[in-house]
Amino acid sequence: MLNTFTSGLRHKNIHRRSNAPMVAKKPHDIIPTLGESIRIIPLGGVEEIGRNMTVIEYGEDIIVIDAGIKFTDYETPGVDYILPNIKYLEERKDHIRALVITHGHLDHIGSIPYVIDRLGNPPIYTREFGALLIQKRQVEFPHLAPLDIRIVEANDTSIPLTANLKVRFFGVTHSIPDSTGVIIETPYGDIVNTGDVRIENENGVPDQREIEHYKMFKDRNILLFCMDSTNIEQPGFSLSETFILKNIDGIVAAAPGRIILATFATQVERVIEFIKMAQHYSRKVIIEGRSMKTNVEIIKHLNLVETSHIIPIEDTTKYPPNKIMIITTGAQGEEFSALMRMSNKTHKFVRLERSDTIVLSSSAIPGNERAISKLKDNLYRHDSKIITYLDSDVHTSGHGRRGELEWLHKQMPYKYFMPVHGNHYRLKMHAELAARLGCPRENIIVPDNGSILEIQDKGAKFVKLREKAPSEDMVVEGLSIGDISDVVIRDRKMLAEDGIFVVIALVNTRTGYLKKSPDIIARGFVYLRESQELLSEARGIIKRSIEGTTVGMNPINFDYAKNAVTEDVSRFLFQRTAKKPIVIPVILGV
Q1: pLDDT tens across 58-72, in order?
Q2: Full-model pTM
Q3: How far apart are CA 566 and CA 542, in angstroms?
């Protein structure tokens, strides 16, 4: 669905409280003063998919576009979320005039509760659906300060943020209502950021509404163009959402029993169409999954679709199976998701039947392949009919493929180009596309997180400074927010891979000899009952190592003894097992 609007403003304050822990400020004097240039700094989203945040700075004024999170993986055990590094902004928070949000997905709004107070709590400009998602998430942080949310309406005006900077929103096609790109109007020209974008099309021909909508850029002075690079490596045009929904409609019409539609909760516009579909076929709708329920509550609040036929899952047995549609999360095989619980027979209310039709209306996120295979194994054991994007056209991405991005480039008469939203190789591929379409290579810069780019000499020059803004990962770990420690992450990986080996020894402080044979506790390393010979040898190594350092030492240097034991035991265990458990010596003087 194409949201064609630009901007206008209704001020609306949504009050919440905030008190996140502060990060000590460290001045970065090596970064030169700005002067008359326009400074652009991507603080996240250009070496990865996620945690999007871009800084626009001119004179004494800063505008921030988006504030997203990135979800963790096996490289960051124990970490909840990864945030953009905002130290550059913390040191200049008095200059931040606005946080501008392109849309309500967590990779664009997720870090707001963690960083907004550190940024000085600037006003947040967003469309209404994004505002409600921000507000809904803010309820989970009752200690946070009131947010100043200013909802942008659908009319054609620019919003003056400072004497020299204005912002204008324009609608884009994505997978969530009120998705927008933004135009930052500067004295030298426009900075255009598409946010996440795709082009609704029919067999590679852009929809007429798209064509008409992007005519607004024909006569604009676009100084810098920044565009989503997520699907740059996929050629051609993506399938249209209309085509996908037509296919799913046919599946629903033919389903003899229950229909279970599993998709991302973030595919809000698709969920709306599913709800309409259920009403058309006189099916009651059950919503499963926490994030799905949250988004459907917002859909209800905005009256985006008729929802009187949505029923609680407890009422599922009151209707025949062919009158039920379940819309659920879990198509990625998440361990405790609703669909996974249905598949492994642990769901409280749903037992899968042969007559069920299950549609996985989502593609596999890289890294989730094993979990999805397990989910599909479980589902197929029930003899239900399973339909996936691999065997039927039941999913399309919210991010445009290369053909769509190429078409968008041709609509934008820009001078400079900076690819965003993607890993480095995706940005490089996007830069090559821009060059092939005629943009001079010296006018294209591929940034890293923290790169400081400047448009200098009143728009005549686009350069990347040698200096960088702080760009190390900031992470959320429980109640803690701060820099990620390589040492901590390395230890967690070692614990996960090779386990822990704890040595407890009592030393006579007068003689330096052990009072008794040392105790050993091992977890995730070897099964102790089957490794008595190894443990016996280890005790001998420990005894010789400790007494070799403590006998005759007065007073005993326990730190020296611990270091010796760690080194000797680690070497021994690696020689015998080829494993490197974390060795923790506990040596007590008695």
Answers
A1: 999 999 999 999 887
A2: 0.80
A3: 9
